[in-house]
Design goal:
Shape: globular
Distance between the termini: 7 Å
Bound molecules: beta-L-arabinofuranose
CATH class: Mainly Beta
Number of domains: 1
CATH architecture: 5 Propeller
Radius of gyration: 18 Å
Order of helices and strands: EEEEEEEEEEEEEEEEEEEEE
C-alpha cells in the first residue's frame, strides 16, 4: 500500500501540477467539525487550503501553510471543497468550489505570484459558475478549459433546467432510466478569471455510442473530473461516486464526446474517490486519497502511485 504523503494534517482531492520543474499539490484540507454525516456531504466542512510541494516523486513533501482561508473570500458561506490550480501570464490561479451565502455551490478564483500563495480571492464567484470540483486543463494550443460538476451534495442535478432549483431535492435526480447528468465544460478567457463561453454539458457515452443512464452507477459521472492529453487524445477521468471507482473515457476534442474505456482505480478505503493525473519526467502518476490514517470518510490523506499504460494508450487498472 502506498504511504500518505503527509500525516500531520488531513488532505484530500489532490490536484497535482508541475510548475518550473517542481511538483505542487493543491488538495482539500480536511478537518473534524463534528457535522453529522449525510448524502449532502455536510461533514466535509473544510475552511482553508494548504499547498504541498516536492521536488520529485518519493521526495520530501513540504506543507506551505495556509494559502487561502474561507474568511478571506468575501462571498463564501461554507464548505471549501476540491480545488485546482493553473499558471498563465506570470500568475498562479487557484480555482475553488465553496457554497455562497445562499448555500449554492459556486466556483471562485484567487490569484498569486507564487504557486504556494498566499492567494487573493476575487470579490465575486465566476459568472455562470456552478457545482463543485473545478479542473483546469491547458491544451497544447494554449487554450484553457474548466471541467466542473458533482451530483448529490455537489448540486449538479439542481441545474438540470439551466437554472438553480433547490426546492425539491428528491425529484431533481433523473430517473434510473433517464440519461445521467453530465459534467460541464467551458473555455476560460485569456485573463483566466472568467468563462469565455456559456458552460456546456459533456457527453460520456458507452462503447455503443449511447449516453450512460442515471441508474448505471458503475459508469455514469458522479464528481471529481480531470482532463489530460496523451498522444493527441483527450482523457477525461472521473469518480463514479456511490460505486467508488475512478473511470476514464477518451475523445478527440476537449469538449468530448468521451467514450468510456474502463476503470483506472478500484475502490480505496473511504467513501469518496478523487484524483489527478500528471506527467513528471516522462512518467505518468495518479494522485488520489484514501482514509488510511483516520478510518473516517471525511478525514482523508493524499497519496501517489504510477499510472501505467498499455501500448495502445489504454490505462492499466490499479488495485490500491
Ligand atoms: O472533498 C469534498 C468532496 O468530496 C469533493 O469535492 C469531492 O470530489 C469528494 O472528494
Amino acid at each position: 500500500m502506498n504511504k500518505p504523503l503527509i500525516s500531520d494534517i488531513y488532505t484530500a482531492d489532490p490536484s497535482a501540477h508541475v510548475f518550473n520543474g517542481r511538483i505542487y499539490i493543491y488538495p482539500s484540507h480536511d478537518i473534524e467539525t463534528n457535522m453529522p454525516e449525510n448524502d449532502n456531504g455536510d461533514h466535509f466542512a473544510m475552511r482553508d487550503y494548504h499547498i504541498l510541494s516536492m521536488d520529485s516523486i518519493g521526495g520530501k513533501v513540504t506543507d506551505h501553510g495556509v494559502a487561502l482561508d474561507i474568511k478571506d473570500i468575501p462571498w463564501a458561506g461554507r464548505q471549501l471543497w476540491a480545488p485546482d490550480a493553473a499558471f498563465k501570464n506570470g500568475t498562479y490561479y487557484l480555482y475553488f468550489p465553496v457554497k455562497d451565502k445562499q448555500d449554492i455551490f459556486r466556483i471562485g478564483v484567487a490569484t498569486s505570484k507564487s504557486p504556494t500563495g498566499p492567494f487573493k480571492a476575487q470579490h465575486k464567484p465566476m459568472e455562470g459558475s456552478l457545482s463543485i470540483d473545478p479542473a483546469v486543463f491547458t491544451d497544447t494550443d494554449g487554450k484553457s478549459y474548466m471541467y466542473v460538476g458533482g451530483i448529490w451534495g455537489g448540486q449538479l442535478q439542481r441545474w438540470r433546467t439551466g437554472k438553480y432549483d433547490g426546492s425539491k431535492p428528491k425529484e431533481q435526480e433523473p430517473a434510473p432510466n433517464e440519461e445521467a447528468v453530465g459534467p460541464r465544460v467551458a473555455r476560460l478567457s485569456n485573463d483566466m478569471l472568467s468563462f469565455a463561453e456559456p458552460v456546456k454539458e459533456v457527453k460520456i457515452v458507452g462503447k455503443d455510442g449511447k449516453p450512460f443512464l442515471a441508474g448505471d452507477n458503475k459508469h455514469r459521472f458522479f464528481e471529481g473530473g480531470w482532463m489530460h492529453k496523451y498522444n493527441g487524445k483527450y482523457y477525461f477521468s472521473y469518480s463514479t461516486g456511490d460505486t467508488h471507482l475512478l473511470a476514464y473515457a477518451t475523445g478527440d476534442s476537449p469538449y468530448g464526446p468521451f467514450t468510456y474505456q474502463g476503470v483506472i482505480m478500484n475502490p480505496v478505503e473511504g467513501w469518496t474517490t478523487h484524483h489527478s493525473i500528471v506527467e513528471v519526467d516522462g512518467k505518468w502518476y495518479i494522485f488520489y486519497h484514501d482514509t488510511e490514517l483516520s478510518g473516517k470518510t471525511w478525514l482523508r490523506n493524499v497519496k501517489v502511485t504510477e499510472l501505467k499504460r498499455k501500448p495502445d494508450g489504454s490505462i492499466e487498472t490499479i488495485n490500491p
